[in-house]
Amino acid sequence: MLTTFRIRRFNPETSPSMPYFQEYQLNMDRADTVLDALMHIRDTLDESLTLRCSCRGAICGSCGMRINGHAALACKTKVQAMVSERGVVQVEPMNNMPVIKDLVTDMAGFWDKVRQVQPWLQPAGPEPEGEYLASSESMNHLTGVMGCIMCGACVSDCAALEVDERFVGPAALAKAYRFVADPRDGAGRSRLLALNEPGGMWDCTRCMECIEVCPKGVGPMDRIMSLRSRGIQANVASTCGSRHAEVFADLIYQKGRLDEPMLAARTFGLRNLSRLLSLLPMIFRAFVRGKVPKSGPLHRAIPGMEKIRRLFQRMEERL
Amino acid sequence: MKFAFFPGCVSKGGCPELYQSVMEVYPRLGLELKEMTTASCTGAGVLQEKDLKLGDVLNARTFALAEQSGLPIMTICSTCQGVMSQANHRLTTDPPYLAAVNEILGEEGLTYRGTTQIRHFVWILLEELGEQGIRQQVRRPLKNLRAAPFYGCYLQRPSEALGFQDQPERARSLELIMSWLGLEVVDFPGKTRCCGFPLLTINEKNSLRMVASHTLDAKRHGADILVTPCPLCHLNLDGMQSRAASQQQADIDLPIWHLPQLLGLAMGMEAKRLGLTRHLVSTQGVLDKLGSAVAKIEA
Ligand code: SF4
Ligand code: SF4
Ligand code: SF4
Ligand code: SF4
Ligand code: FES
Questions:
Q1: 3-class DSSP state for residue A104?
Q2: ipTM of the complex
Q3: Which of B31, B69, B114, B211 keeps 20 to 30 A from A196, CA to CA?
Q4: pLDDT under 70 in chain B at which residues?
């Protein structure tokens, strides 16, 4: 099939060095991957096209790029699945990192953040006689996150990073979870304390982009949610995020449903009175506009509430 | 077609106009709804931050209640839909897990067999009414209105739990319906991105940056309004818009509509009955733009 590739080009050595799109047309086979196409373009049509790749088998993690707007491994993406109705495939470098040339991005910041979570085992206590033992259950649980090939796709499409580059990001947080959940590691608490800081695990906006684009099924956001649960369990200092989760859970326990005014009041509370007060003008305008349900701003518990409470209690007993 | 209706907390709380507009439109679409009054909140992904399994137990209870009545569930909130779809995916793809959850439910005399279907209103419009069914409803084609879709994360990802494999059209459901209503659909990259709502309490600044970035982006692409099937997106994009505008020192003023409001207007209903006056960003300009068509029917 005749396919048009619309590729974002950028060469810092030309002036003016502005990114632009260039189109190439070539005949593709059903089985071809986007990486096959790019290499073919480089070999036969335009040797200046710059890209990074190595294994061609979704193992090395070097061919991350955005294909039709979403990060993916070029070597794992079939052209056929990507051709639009107009027969076009759009290819761009990854987002949320500087572009060096064409489709090649600078991964230095990516690695800095991975290093920031201290991605090595830190056992506590005296060294055992033999090996450090871990149950196969715990290791099986970790195989998913150990499958990360550090391709950067999740980081590229992360919504939180897009607005704040200080966020440590999905790949590093998934890596952090890999150690927090390792029974041989002894630094769990200090890791969670570090992740509890601004820019850490509470700055994820739960957009699920990382889950969707990860080519290895690592599910970074799911790991971030597990880190949050562990942080709450370990009683690391409360943040707006952890109080929000605790209060939310308690409201469901009390009323079976969400109660927005109570949620805000109890999350910010007296500790953060200024945040609460700053919301007042908006709440007032909402009130004037009739954005309050007929039953009033505070909600009654749903009927049969005791059944829901019993489920909470059963879960508690099982801990 | 009959559904167990799960309105979600927000349509009965901070976005009462959503519930109101759904109540106006559904009887005329041939839908029959039985509201689930005893179901709990889905947890909204927030309870799940604290305790994922507890969230799954509460949702399994809701699914079991629907299963008992033999009805599929209808949601009107991207977040409710996504959180329930994900819970159902975990429960139905992992039999030992389902058994463990059922052990807890069993003490309440409930079991979940894993058969409940959960569908968002938008998907029901797409899959039950379809193009013809929707076009037939249109009394007042919303011509000359340029509208951009905004799905909400939970109605887009993870695609596996949302059944996109078997129902690929779901990924474009909102745009399809908007076009069948006669609107000019404005495509823009933000349509599937996050509105920032989950960050609002944790990091308001970043949350508002997302609000500003997507609303401004939609405007740059020529949108007169943004349309969403998610009341939480609405809370952030409408409710927090003026704050986002002052934080980013930008002029935004982009009305955010709930899909059922748009549907109702196209079906010829009055703006007031659809709760269009209950927004923080005024919808009046748009209604004026639609002009004589709207005014005449309301006179
Ligand atoms: S879910 Fe969180 S970490 Fe993942 S991409 Fe979204 S904001 Fe980033
Ligand atoms: S988590 Fe997935 S997407 Fe992110 S770097 Fe690892 S393999 Fe790539
Ligand atoms: S997810 Fe949101 S709207 Fe849905 S039930 Fe819970 S709080 Fe309410
Ligand atoms: S866009 Fe925002 S409110 Fe809407 S589903 Fe995503 S996070 Fe929730
Ligand atoms: S070339 Fe190695 S992952 Fe694509």
A1: strand
A2: 0.94
A3: B211
A4: 292-299
